[in-house]
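Hey,

Quick one before I head out. I ran the complex with adenosine-5'-triphosphate overnight. Inputs first:
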Amino acid sequence: MKLIFQQMPIVIGALNSGFVQTLKLFSVTLLGAFPLGLLIAFGSLSKIKAISLATQFVIWIVRGTPLMIQLLIVYYFPGLVLHNPIWGGGESGRFLAASIAFIINYSCYFSEIYRGGIQSVPVGQTEAGLVLGMTKRQIFFHVTLLQMIKRIVPPISNEIITLVKDTALARIIALQEIIWAGQAFMKGSHGISGAIWPLFFTAFYYLIFNGIVTVLLTRLERKMDYFR
Amino acid sequence: MAILEVKNIRKTFGNVEVLKGIDFSLEKGQVLSIIGSSGSGKTTLLRCLNFLETPDTGVIKVNNDVLFDSSDPSTRLESQIRQKRLHFGLVFQSFNLFPQYTALENVMLAPRLAAKEKRAYEAQKDKIKAEAVELFHQIGLSDRMNNYPHQLSGGQQQRVAIARALILKPDILCFDEPTSALDPELTGEVLKVIKQLSDKNNTMIIVTHEMAFARDVASHVIFMDGGGICEQGEPRELFNNPKEERTRQFLTRYNS
Ligand SMILES: Nc1ncnc2c1ncn2[C@@H]1O[C@H](COP(=O)(O)OP(=O)(O)OP(=O)(O)O)[C@@H](O)[C@H]1O
Ligand SMILES: [Mg+2]
């Protein structure tokens, strides 16, 4: 026990910098996947058959395969198969590759949620706007958008909470996120080796972070309770 | 001179001809009731007038202005349809109020957006508000202006929907079965508001299954059957002395 207290400051320091990487991946994924998901949703709703079929095919592939495999393919395919290692070897290359895999994966999940949200707003709302002489743009921003958001916040919240935990998968390409940092103390890191407790300890980081995310999202949901 | 002239409106969905050449005209201040069995094309006709559907053939004229002529492609321009729609108002069977806005905001939204587009919002906002408040007085809901739609009864929601259409001062206000989605005890309050509008010489087209109301409020009645106009005339004439066998059958079903 005394040993753990001695190791604590060193471990916390290392876990913190791992957690910064986790947070970065989390934020970049959301920033990329929110807009890209909307684009994909419009694609799958397109009246042009070729576009909607192609989009739905991509969504099927991405949602039908494990994110871990997608990470491996994005990271290794250019170098090992095309002999063009575009990512470089360093941590920044790994981060870029991980971000791209996560953004593609999550935007496909988001797009299906958006699509459901768009389709769940009754056509009567749009028609009422048209009959009142509003433009399509005015109808989108002043009538349908908020109703869509209200309907997508709960399912998107679930995805966001899953994303917090999914970031751990980036360890497979050796991105130095928090699990990677915790695990390093088993093999040896910062003069400590054979310690497994730092790995277990990372769970607290996830718990606290998810707690904060949940509170924020619940607040957002409540904000829209005033209408049905 | 007729305020509205409709000639030879035809509309086909897939291979089903839903409107088989509709002709009628309406004088300013008149109230036209359209009756007919389910599927006879009443809603489709109102949707064509409001440019929610494009007729395959036909002409629509308001105040002698050609709003739509199937043989003249320039009348189909998407950019002008918006302006043309404003000649008509439409009150839906299912109200279609915007749930995220209060009753008052629902009524003010369209004129506010129009004013903003013309960069005249600051100049017009007080006038818009005053008009909206006056309309709430007319529909008897002054005390519910700040309620959200889900806090209002169906009859109250439909009255707000009527005010929302009225604030744009359409030449012709259309109603598609305005009381069909309401509990029987709530239809009266909505019909009363529509009756008041007809007393003030608003030009209206009312699709309804309320035969007693149609007889009472209408200056002219059209009976539609299978996508065409089967019979039309003065309400007393049409209800008491229908000329067509189909009309007679339809009316006996409603009077029994
Ligand atoms: N968008 C559409 N696509 C295909 N068919 C349609 C469409 N809209 C209406 N129809 C068909 O057109 C016919 C007339 O429909 P419409 O809604 O105009 O009838 P209605 O007289 O209003 O009936 P109700 O009294 O039930 O409201 C129906 O057979 C309907 O199925
Ligand atoms: Mg109908």
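Residues B 42-43, 176-177 surround magnesium ion (ligand 2) (CB under 6 Å).

Talk tomorrow,
K.
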